[in-house]
Amino acid sequence: MDRFTQWFRGGGYSVVVLAALILVVFPLALDAFRLNLVGKYLTYGFVAVGLVMLWGWGGVLSLGQGVFFGLGGYAMAMFLKLEASDPESTKIQSTPGIPDFMDWNQLTALPLWWEPFRSLPFTILAVVAVPAALAFVIGYAMFKRRVGGVYFAIITQAVALVLTVLIIGQQGYTGGVNGITDLKTLAGWDIRSDSAKLVLYFVNAGLLLAVIALCLWIQRSKLGTLLLAMRDKEDRVRFSGYDVSMFKVFAFCLAAGISAIGGAMFTLQVGFMSPSFVGIVPSIEMVIFAAVGGRMSLVGAVYGALLVNFGKTYFSESFPDLWLFLMAALFIGVTMVFPNGLAGIWDKYVVQRVGTRRSSRRAGKIVAPPSAMPEPGRDDPVAEPPAEMPGRVSGQSA
Amino acid sequence: MSNEIVLAVEDLTVSFDGFKAIDALNLYVDKDELRVVIGPNGAGKTTLLDLICGKTRASAGSIRFKDQEMTRLPEHMIVRSGIGRKFQTPSIYENLSVFKNLEVSYPRGRGVFGALAFRCDEAVRGKVDEIAGEIGLAGMLHTEAGLLSHGQKQWLEIGMLLMQDPELLMLDEPIAGMSVREREQTADLLRRICRNRSVIVIEHDMEFVSKIAHKVTVMHQGKILAEGPMDKVQADPRVIDVYLGH
């Protein structure tokens, strides 16, 4: 119990608050339509959480996370589409039993690579495995050659563009620019009903919290420490006997897999998947979610995704022309003034104050060697800088 | 001191756009030896260390460590075979505590999944305590490394290397920027840690060199100008000419 209290005070409370908010407050306060909207925003939260691991901790910026979100979403959509395209409901097509867009594109048989998506277990596996495998290939090719930083970001942009063009170009196989629409049931269960949407909301929220828990565990492991160390002094890690590139590959695959779960949940809750969630613009938007929320904070990233999307819905309804400029201003503003986003603001202005008050109270209680305490002479400069250091503040707490 | 050769560098050459930074260089380091490499700026001292640890790739020649060829191994494999390298400017993880800095350097759980499964057990903690004592940071384990003084940062990096028990330790100007007192402590530290391993040190401070060196190698323009005990090298007219001055 003591360990729990310690964890709770050390930042674990933020996870508990988030869980309470999305599991209790939102479902009680919002109507079915709004709740479904929040559910959709939370699927972007997955991508943002992945970016915290990859960008915040690993120091690798990917501007192509939409690719993985999209692949996860498409994998799920393919399963749902096949289920919606049974011969009975597609009997007016020239080839019944295949998805409608295939029929419109003069396809007369289901392509071979669609076949496995008739199976739900395969689909669930593919949702995570396909994006992770693609991330592995890209990551391995890039990081082994020491491509990093801006160059890597540009390459991920290129991948996002390539995939969008591919999906739009191959419309007989992918549904083209419209995407895969008209999804109805998941293993016979109608996902369009209000009750199904409520269930899916909770599944989504639960998965998101599970993913956050997994990431917290990784952050606390030696691998988490190594990611931070690599970001700080890559050569020191390399010359301490670590294959730096494989750790980056891992972070990239992790972020890809997490984004893909978000994509699959998006398809389930929104009822379609299209290339407009894959390309360059959505990928950059996803980075903005993480940046606004705080790229060192898993919980912050979820708030970032929620807030930016609330803002987007609100402003694009009222001032559709201004929204893009506003979002760009938000991104630039946050990166310049609050590099650690909302979580950074929280840590700096709230936790710091409460923390100093509490630690002075606790000092007598904890049995620690006197050396563990900062030297008294240095007290003031010590108290300030940690707030700026992304490495430990929100990072290790949440 | 035994005369078993740990590191054999033969005909090593590296050229950058035709400029030979290291030119057909031969160097042999014995087991448990503390070798100091001196020489004027641009002589290729740091490049030599870069080549041995794999940071720079050789154009020709061989580097054999414990009878194993190193020139084509990836950096992390060179480290794992027992070569540790300290960089010129302190290269530590500033945002992590001294304890974490040392813990992360412990040679277990070096793969991705090994690192996930890694647990900081008694063996790790014991080693951290031992090394922290050795480098004089035992009382500062929970201090953030970025807050250490310059000298302490240098020691911490040496400590991070010692965590891995390398058989060959390479230090690039370990006392640069240190106070007189810190220099003495570093000299003591180096004499202690070279007991069970070979050490190569690059240094400019001749007083410090004479305190620690078993043998001195003088480099000049990518080649070895002279090699031997300190007093012999100091008396060599060629060395006086290019480096020590009259």
Give an account of the 3D structure.
The complex is a heterodimer of chains A (398) and B (246). Chain A has 17 helices and 2 strands. Chain A is mainly α and 398 residues long. In chain A, strand 1 and strand 2 form a beta hairpin. Chain A is globular and about 70 Å long. Chain B has 2 domains: 1-81 and 198-246, Rossmann fold, CATH 3.40.50.300; 83-165, P-loop containing nucleotide triphosphate hydrolases (Rossmann fold), CATH 3.40.50. In chain B, strand 9 (215-220) and strand 10 form a beta hairpin. In chain B, 49% of the residues are buried. Chain B has helices at residues 45-53, 75-80, 98-104, 112-117, 122-134, 150-162, 180-193, 206-212, 230-235, 237-244; strands spanning 5-16, 19-30, 34-38, 60-65, 68-69, 83-86, 168-172, 198-202, 215-220, 223-228. Chain B contains 10 helices and 10 strands. Chain B has 246 residues and is of the alpha/beta class. In chain B, strands 6-7-8-3-9-10 form a 6-stranded mixed sheet, with helices on both faces. Chain B has a 4-stranded antiparallel sheet with strand order 2-1-4-5, with helices on one face. Chain A binds chain B through residues 218, 221-223, 225-226, 228-229, 232-233, 235-244, 246-247, 249-250, 368-369, 371-372, 374, 378, 382, 385-386, 389-392, and chain B through 53, 55, 74-76, 79-80, 84-85, 87, 91-96, 100, 103-105, 107, 109-112, 115-118, 138-144, 146-147, 157, 160, 164.
